[in-house]
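To the wet lab folks,

You asked to see what we're planning to order before we commit. Fair enough. Below is the target structure as tokens, and below that is the sequence we designed to fit it. If anything looks off to you, flag it before the synthesis order goes out.
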């Protein structure tokens, strides 16, 4: 049994903890090897998950339905071998009235799962002391320093989004290219017109 859990709200995180306690393998993304898909209550409904479920024969479950599948009527985690993992037609799904269904898979890959989202903050942290030291040397304005910090953040976001894969890579490439060119031009112009105050 291999489960993909969509969402990072409380219900989705509880489903992940339940899967780990039952010895169920968690998939990092929606792929052809998963046997079940669990969608958190905080995730909006889109067609992609339904299409994947129908075409791949993967049951689409809410967190409560997944808990019922794993724990059974007793409410206790059952051994992995006792969990029913048959085809989706053998597991009719009664939708919770609170469940809004899945949203479209956005292609967030291992880059997000492994904390690469901190990379923009890292590059921003590098840009900050450099740009304020540049301001302290009386060669640039405060606006130059603040723009430098913003460019550092956008460059970091671009690298992170490119690492996350499609479709985020498109936005990442644009952010990286624009911020790099604009930042280089801005700093070059600031050095070209030094200020004494």
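Sequence we intend to order:
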């Amino acid at each position: 049994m291999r489960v993909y859990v969509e969402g990072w709200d409380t219900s989705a995180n509880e489903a992940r903890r339940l899967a780990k306690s039952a010895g169920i393998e968690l998939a990092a993304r929606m792929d052809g090897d998963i046997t079940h898909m669990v969608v958190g209550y905080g995730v909006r409904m889109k067609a992609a998950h339904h299409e994947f479920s129908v075409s791949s024969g993967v049951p689409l479950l809410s967190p409560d339905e997944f808990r019922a599948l794993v724990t059974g009527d007793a409410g206790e985690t059952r051994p992995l071998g006792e969990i029913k993992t048959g085809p989706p037609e053998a597991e009719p799904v009664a939708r919770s009235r609170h469940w809004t269904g899945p949203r479209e898979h956005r292609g967030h890959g291992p880059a997000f799962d492994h904390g690469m989202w901190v990379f923009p903050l890292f590059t921003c942290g590098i840009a900050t002391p450099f740009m304020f030291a540049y301001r302290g040397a009386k060669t640039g304005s405060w606006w130059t320093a603040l723009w430098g910090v913003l460019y550092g953040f956008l460059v970091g976001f671009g690298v992170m989004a490119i690492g996350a894969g499609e479709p985020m890579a498109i936005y990442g490439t644009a952010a990286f290219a624009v911020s790099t060119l604009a930042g280089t031009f801005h700093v070059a112009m600031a050095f070209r017109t030094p200020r004494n105050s």
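Structural context that might help your review: The two ends are 67 Å apart (CA to CA). Residues 74-114 have pLDDT under 50 and may be disordered.

Thanks,
Computational group
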